[in-house]
Structures are given as structure tokens and as C-alpha cells.
Amino acid sequence: MAIGITEKITQIQEELARTQKNKATEYHVGLLKGKLARYRQQLLEPAPGSSTSKGEGFEVSKSGHARVALIGFPSVGKSSLLGKITNTKSEIAAYAFTTLTSVPGVLEYNGAEIQILDLPGIIQGASEGKGRGRQVVSTAKTADLVLMVLDATKPEEQRAILERELESVGIRLNKEPPNIYFKIKKTGGVKFSYTNPPKYLSEKMVMHLLKDYKIHNADVLIRDENVTVEDMIDVIHADHRSYIKCLYCYNKCDAVSLEEVDRLAHMPDTVVISASMELGLDDLTERIWADLAMLRIYTKRKGELPDFAEPTVVRSTHNTIEDVCDTIHRDMKNKFKYALVWGVSAKHSPQKCGLSHKIGDEDVVCIFTKT
Ligand SMILES: Nc1nc2c(ncn2[C@@H]2O[C@H](COP(=O)(O)OP(=O)(O)OP(=O)(O)O)[C@@H](O)[C@H]2O)c(=O)[nH]1
Ligand SMILES: [Mg+2]
């Protein structure tokens, strides 16, 4: 049965490739893209009771403050890298598909424990089930950061293929969710509105698309004039989309010229390393830290100095005093009176703050509770 879907996907992809993109085909192309998204969705939801959904022992439980997934072709040096930035050894060899399951390691940095997941290499077709590809890409979906490991000696071949594989399971790299409000209703028909007229998406296109999805009642509010039909499809499938930061990591820079290293290093969201020669690894860990947007907070008791060796680490998406309370004790916020904050987030030092105050990196926080 899964074969049937893969064939349908291929047919649509071929049709999309041979269809001229112009005004006359606009709606047809939009609907084909929607159909493709629906089939891919089906492919990722294995039939109930089937055992092919997850590999035995493939899922590793999350631990630490954040998870980074190493995604790349076979033999680019993912396991070598894991061995250099964590204390975990994962088998390394010169042949492809050395790593056959996911191997977690821990990178300790700035007081944070960052889980690094070494994964099997993936190739074109991974998302459709080639090799262990499907498990790898679905594991990538659980990551806070994708570290795409690429071979500096083959800089053009791999990246686009990997991006497409991740895209097709609903991962969106270095992208914000589209600014479209979409809500399915029970009655009232489709209501379409916008803040500014969208440039690449018409009301008619949205109506056609929703009809094809058999959605007859919904509110659609376009808040960004640059959204496309792909964005609209993503919003319809919002439950199955993951917006994840990606850092592109070119390994084996020892094997290319200095000019090439320089060229690669200037590309956006890119670091260049050599795992075996241990070059660029400090820069890499700094970039991982920055991309995960983590903050260090030093908590202190009244009348005492904070322990600067033991920061409390939070993600910048969870950066309120309330979040800090939660990391200390789950009961803390119920007993909370106020906090004193020193540092970049304080208007004056110390500032007296409530639970909603947003803290900054390396702030010192003293929490006062009801006794
Ligand atoms: N020249 C060079 N070779 C490297 C570097 N890092 C790894 N290698 C070599 O590349 C080969 C593959 O390394 P692995 O770490 O096993 O690669 P992998 O990405 O984990 O491969 P799979 O598990 O098969 O997906 C080995 O022969 C390594 O010695 C590097 O920085 N420079
Ligand atoms: Mg490996």
C-alpha cells in the first residue's frame, strides 16, 4: 500500500516538473502541491498496527537542555564529530552506513547539557523510506537544532538533497511559521481577509485549495503580503510542520584549499571544521550555543553571592522569571512574592520584578517567596 502512495507522489512530482508555471496553470499547480502535501502526510502516518513505523530502539529519550541532530550523507564524519565534542564514542569507518541507529552524546557548554544525536547517514529518497531514512528524518523533527554535516570536498551535491528530504517530512529550516491566521469552523463558509493585499496568493487560489481539502468553513487572515501557496498549504498542515533552526557544518576542511574554506565559511548559517584535525570545533560549539538561544541565569539567596560556576540554563523562548522558577522547583511560582534582578534585563540594578519579567543572558536573580 505504501508503494501506491510513493508512486502517486512520483507522478505528481513529474507532473509538476513538466507543467509550465504561468497564470493559466497557477491554480492547477497550487492544487497539485496541496495533493502532494496530503500524500506525504499519509506516507508519514503508517497504517495502524504496522511495525514499520519505528526502528527497534531507534528513539532515544530527550535529555539535557536541548537536542541537536546530526544529519548528513554517509561518511561525512558525523560520528567522528560526535566523538570530538562529546565523551561518547560512535563507530567510525571509511565505508558508508557505519552508524545504523541513533547514538546520543552530551556536549557540556556554559553550564548547559546539550544532547547531540549521531544518526545514520541519509541519501536521496530517505523520506520515502530508503535505508533508515524515514526514522532519521522523523528524529530530526524532534531536534531543537539540525546540524547538517556536509562534506567540504563535495560542497554542491549534498545540501539541496538533504534540504528536500527534510522539507518533504514537514521540516522547515531557518524559517518562521507563515504569518497566516487559519481556523476551521463548523459553519459560515470561508472568510478570506488580509492586512495588505497578498502579492503571490489570491483569494481564488485559497478558495480552490480549501475546496480541494474539503474544508468548507474557515477563517483565513493573511498578515504578510509575501506569503505563497506553499505557505498556505503549510498552515493547513500546521500540526505536522516543524520550524527548526539549521546550522550547516562543512567537515573535512583539511582536505580542501584555504580559498575553498574561506568561500564556504562566508555562506550564511555555516561553519567549517575538520573533525579529525580538530579544527573549528570551538567556533562550532559557540555557534550551536548561539543558535539554540540559551541563557545562563545565576540564582542567589538573599545576602549571599551567586554561584557563577553553576548557572541555571533556560531557552530564550522560555525566558521569564516564571520559567526560572519552574526550572528550580515546580512549586516555586505558587510561593513566589517577587524577584530582584541584576544585569542586562534590569532597568536599574537590582530591579524588583514579577513572574512575567523577561531575563537576559547572565542575569543574577534572587527570588523571594512567601513563607
Ligand atoms: N580528511 C578527513 N576525514 C575525516 C574527517 N572526519 C571524518 N573523516 C573520515 O571520514 C570517514 C567517515 O567518518 P564517520 O565519522 O564514520 O562518518 P559518518 O558520517 O558517521 O558515516 P555514517 O555513519 O556511515 O553515516 C572516516 O574514514 C573518517 O576517518 C575530517 O575532518 N577530515
Ligand atoms: Mg556514523
Describe this structure in words.
Pfam families: MMR_HSR1, MMR_HSR1_Xtn, TGS. InterPro entries: Beta-grasp_dom_sf (IPR012675), DRG (IPR045001), G_OBG (IPR031167), GTP-bd (IPR006073), GTP-binding_2 (IPR031662), GTP1-OBG_CS (IPR006074), P-loop_NTPase (IPR027417), Small_GTP-bd (IPR005225). This is P-loop containing nucleoside triphosphate hydrolase protein. Keywords: GTP-binding, Nucleotide-binding. GO terms for molecular function: GTP binding; GTPase activity. The protein has 371 residues and is α/β, with parallel strands linked by helices. It has 3 domains: 112 residues, no CATH class; 162 residues, Rossmann fold, CATH 3.40.50.300; 75 residues, Ubiquitin-like (UB roll) (Roll), CATH 3.10.20.30. Strands 1, 2, 3, 4, 5, 9 and 10 form a 7-stranded mixed beta sheet that branches. The protein has a 5-stranded mixed beta sheet with strand order 12-11-15-13-14. It starts with a helix and ends with a strand. Bound molecules: guanosine-5'-triphosphate and magnesium ion.
Question: Can you tell me the overall shape?
Answer: globular
Mean pLDDT comes to 90
List low-pLDDT spans: 50-57
Give the count of helical stretches.
Answer: 10
Name given to the CATH architecture of the largest domain: 3-Layer(aba) Sandwich
Total of domains: 3
